[in-house]
Design brief:
This protein has about 70 residues and is of the alpha+beta class. The protein contains two helices and four strands, in the order E-E-H-H-E-E. It has a four-stranded antiparallel β-sheet, with no helix packed on it.
């Protein structure tokens, strides 16, 4: 549940994120998924995040909140 991480810090692999507000799907979805991409993604938004420490992300890395 991404929304549970709003306004918190978390890491995935080596990368540390600072989560901000919830964001809704944007027109970029049309570029990636084709026409009607935004419509297909309604209800499946994400989080606007700032990367505070870069690193490597790998498929299967755990998402963990930083206290």
């Amino acid at each position: 549940n991404l929304l549970a991480l709003r306004h918190q810090r978390f890491h995935i692999g080596d990368v540390v994120f600072e989560a901000g507000a919830h964001c809704h799907p944007c027109l970029r979805m049309n570029e990636v998924l084709g026409e009607q991409g935004v419509a297909a993604m309604l209800g499946h938004g994400g989080l606007c995040c700032k990367i505070t420490r870069g690193g490597i992300l790998r498929v299967g890395d755990r998402v963990a909140r930083i206290s």
